[in-house]
Amino acid sequence: MNITFDKIDDLNAMVVINLEKADYSEKVDKELRRIQKNATMKGFRPGKAPLDMVKRLYGKSVLAEKIQQATSDALNQYIQDNKLDILGYPITSENTPSDIDIENNDSFSFAFDLGMAPAFELDFSAKDKLEHFIISVGDKEIDEDIEYARKRYGKLEEVEKAEAEDIIYANLTELNENGELLDGGIVEKPVSMVASLVEDKKTQKALLGSQRGAEMTVNIQKLFNGNEGVISSSLGIAREGVNDLNPNFKLVITDIKRRTFAELNEDYFKEVFGPADYPKTEAEYRERIKSNLENYYRNEADLWIDYQIGHLLMEKHKIQLPDAFLKRWLLATKAEHYNAENIEEKYAEEKSALMRRLVIDKIAEKYELKPAQEAILQEARTYYMGMYRQYGMNINPEDGFLDETIKKRMAEREFVTQMADRVIYRMAYDKVKETVTPKEKKVNVEDYFKHVNEHKHEHGE
Known about the structure:
The strands form three sheets. Strands 6, 7, 8, 9 and 10 form a five-stranded antiparallel beta sheet that branches. This protein starts with a strand and ends with a helix. It has 14 helices and eleven strands. It is of the alpha+beta class. The protein has three domains: 2-116, Alpha-Beta Plaits; 129-139 and 280-458, Trigger factor, domain 2 (Orthogonal Bundle); 155-259, Chitinase A, domain 3 (Roll), CATH 3.10.50.30. It is extended, with a radius of gyration of 33 Å. The chain has helices at 25-38, 51-81, 139-152, 201-207, 220-223, 228-235, 266-273, 282-316, 323-333, 343-366, 373-390, 400-409, 413-435, 445-458, and strands at 2-7, 12-19, 86-92, 108-116, 129-136, 156-158, 167-174, 189-194, 215-219, 248-259, 437-444.
């Protein structure tokens, strides 16, 4: 076997592997004899078919399999032995053809293109400054949070006439072009809506002030703001069928309910905070809300630092990548996601993520960051707690169900790798945070979000 390495430039290389008969013949013979022992062929007892017959039937497929295996093993070993830092995985060369004529030759040549990881130095220091916001919480934020909570814990009461924020319950029936019941159409489908959310002013005006039992003709697209997903789920039909609906529907209001604000009393405080530790007065309640909001905005400020770290690392590390190779690699290995039409757009996302990954790996290497098993388990716990909250599920961190779920997932290598990566990212960002200089700025909530939104708008985010 002969292997040659050709460095085309700093980011691209080619490896050619030349196989001779001696490199694979023993493995081919061994596999054919194994097949012979298990083969059942007409005219011969099981395992007694002549080896020549087995070779005629299976020889070429076995040969192809074994030379591919020998080549793959040799390529992997060469990369490992020579400590080649590659991106993706080698793919068949587009400039140097491989020679794999198993019909006429017993020596073969395989040529592979390699994408090489770029060499670069880390560039961040105490000279780099990041904004660290100290966000003050005022009466406005406290009042808004209390109003939201009181509305959330309030009760729904039936009312006579619909106002902007009331929930209107109605039945919808599909009409034909003559304004009559459509044969085979949707009939008396129960739906609900809020007038203030209807964008079409004429439809909104018709709903406002309406009473139980009122009838009207509405355009289904205007009623649900042309949102196919909302229309399909509200009417219980496939999304693909939305465009086939007749536009006009008869709407009959069956009920109108208004959410009232919960009273600020002991029962409400217990419901919100639990019976063990709840505020006893309105003043204590406001202080508790203020403390919760301050914790929330401290976390917001920390997230903004993380956001800035991400920008800093990308701005200060202008990494070059073997773009042409990586596009070919994605097309070849992930054909279910990438094609000639979307590769340019999707590659931009892949490139950004890969560049960030290279910088994170460099930081981890320099500072010898390694995730401990306990940190990976904690990250898995954080991951699932966040996922449950996203779906509106309040799970106790000590819940046995949570422990059992994590235990099962930790048996999966891919999941463990995913959690370990998250820990490494956190450790790397913390290392950057320790190194750079925070510049404190005191702002109120409104100015904080104004600053963040302006920055993201400036960067097209």
